[in-house]
Design a protein that fits this description.
There is one protein chain. The chain has eight helices and 15 strands. The chain is an alpha/beta fold. It folds into two domains: about 160 residues, HAD superfamily/HAD-like (Rossmann fold); about 60 residues. The strands form four sheets. The protein has a five-stranded parallel sheet, sandwiched between helices. Strands 9-10-12-11 form a four-stranded antiparallel sheet. Helix 1 packs parallel to helix 8. The longest helix has 13 residues. It is globular and about 55 Å long. This is HAD-IIB family hydrolase. GO terms for molecular function: hydrolase activity. Keywords: Hydrolase.
């Protein structure tokens, strides 16, 4: 059965979150080096399978393939498709969709030398704790703290032709076309939904959120960058993943 609603969603700090935000009763969603790293709220564990039955659940994440595959989804909630590497790599039933990847590769092929050069220069900084090229698609750097990330970003703010984004202590450099908005446009062309719902929490999600018929954000921080008439802001007394899934199920109607 074709699902009429496409629910495109960020993952980290949207559907799941790190141990820093853990509350009693939260369910472990991810292990990293044997330690509990990611978590779902109890309500998310209950609502995600319902949402997965009623809408086309499509995660769109900056995570690499390996990072995405660490997630332990609630029973009945495993998405059949997921867009990793900021939308550049489509996984279908756990396998790379070659047609999608080939189209993404055409967008980044001419930038491979510039990506490698940027990685070499960034890696030499003392305040960068790790840096890499993710799935051959973009450069990612983790810094010692948020202030270091801002300094690192300032050093390469004009490093054309990449789009640079800072998120906490992380900095990303994306070639043209490797953004969540482009990924959502490509997905909508493939799946042809009647409506698109999106959820996200950071500036990296804004291109995707702008394309939604209804966007969901955790607070008012991103609101100036989005169409207010098509954006819902989470209530202060509700955890964001629960707000997102309640809204999705309300939009989907009776299952």
């Amino acid at each position: 059965m074709m699902k009429r609603i496409l629910f495109a969603t960020d993952l980290d700090n949207t559907l799941l979150f790190s141990h820093r935000h853990r509350q009693p009763g939260d369910r472990c969603a991810e292990l990293w080096n044997g330690a509990e790293q990611g978590f779902f709220t109890p309500e998310t564990v209950d609502l995600l399978p319902q949402a997965a039955r009623q809408v086309r659940l499509l995660p769109i994440t900056t995570r690499s393939i390996a990072q995405y595959q660490r997630i332990r989804w609630p029973a009945g909630a495993l998405p059949r498709e997921a867009l990793t590497a900021n939308g550049a790599v489509l996984l279908r039933d756990g396998e790379i969709d070659r047609d999608w990847y080939d189209q993404s590769w055409e967008l980044v092929r001419a930038h491979q030398g510039a990506l490698r050069d940027l990685l070499e220069r960034i890696s030499a900084r003392e305040d960068v704790t790790s840096a890499r090229i993710v799935e051959s698609m973009y450069v990612y750097a983790a810094c010692s703290d948020a202030a270091a990330a801002e300094r690192c970003a300032a050093a390469w703010a004009q490093d054309a032709p990449f789009q640079m984004e800072v998120s906490g202590r992380k900095v990303y450099w994306f070639p043209p076309g490797i953004d969540k908005g482009t990924a959502l446009r490509r997905a909508a062309g493939r799946y042809r939904p009647e409506r698109i719902l999106c959820a996200g929490d950071s500036v990296i999600d804004v291109p995707m959120l702008r394309r939604a018929d209804l966007a969901m954000i955790p607070d008012g921080t991103l609101l100036p960058a989005l169409p207010a008439e098509r954006t819902l802001v989470c209530q202060e007394n509700v955890r964001f993943p629960d707000f997102v899934l309640r809204t999705v199920l309300a939009q989907a109607g009776p299952g």
